[in-house]
Amino acid sequence: MSGPVKPELEFVYEAKGELGDPIPIGETVDGTRRIIPIFSGPCEGPKIKGELLGNAADWQLTRHDGVTVADAIYALRTDDDVVIQIRNRGLRHGPAKVMQRLAAGEDVDPAEYYFRTIPEFIAPKGKYDWLNRSVFVCSGARYKNYIKLWVWRVL
Predict the structure, then answer these.
(1) Rounded to an integer, what distance in angstroms lies between the CA atom of residue 73 and that of residue 70?
(2) pLDDT tens for residues 5-53?
(3) Is the pLDDT of residue 121 over 90?
(4) How many H-runs (helices) and E-runs (strands) does the chain carry?
(5) 40 Cβ neighbours under 8 A, 6+ residues apart
(6) CA separation for the pair 81, 122 (Å, rounded)
(7) Which residue among 71, 98, 102, 109 is least packed, with the fewest CB closer than 10 Å?
(8) Is residue 123 within 8 Å of 143, Cβ to Cβ?
(9) Residue 131: helix, strand or coil by DSSP?
């Protein structure tokens, strides 16, 4: 019998998505909800190159404990013209002063707050089918008008 198997990470890509102005839903029983429109942006890395497609959104919930729950659905078109759907869910939180600066639109070093997600891919059969058979993790950074995402495959 062997011991525990420690997962390794393989870098897949970095994506940058332009963001629209938040659309407030308002206070609900589970926290404050809003919609963040996601527009296009580049996607580049050793495993995938392409462009995020627009007409997407992140349906966010900021819980009463200050944690923002992201639930984004979007797609990317690869440089060889394959469309891949992505649902990216996760958490963003940090010290109150850091989160206030972020909310005010300041550029904040992403090392100052926690922003991690779990992207799930739906890829057509073919070259990118491996996306359907792996688990991925993502770290992110939020800026005033855009977001950056770094995606790794768990090996």
Answers:
(1) 10
(2) 999 999 999 999 999 999 999 999 999 999 999 999 999 999 999 999 9
(3) yes
(4) 1, 11
(5) 17, 18, 51, 52, 53, 54
(6) 15
(7) 109
(8) no
(9) helix
H-helix or E-strand spanning residue 152: strand 146-154
- Nearest partner of 88 among 63, 113, 110, 56, judged by Cα: 56
Length of the chain: 155
- pTM (predicted TM-score): 0.93
The structure tokens listed for 112 are 């100052």
CA 74 → CA 56, 67, 77, 97, 99, distances in Å? 5, 22, 10, 30, 25
Q: Above 90 in pLDDT, residue 133?
A: yes
Judge whether residue 62 has pLDDT over 90: yes
- Residue 100 belongs to what H/E stretch? helix 96-103
How far does Cα 79 stand from its chain's mean position? 20
The DSSP bridge partners found for residue 97 are: none
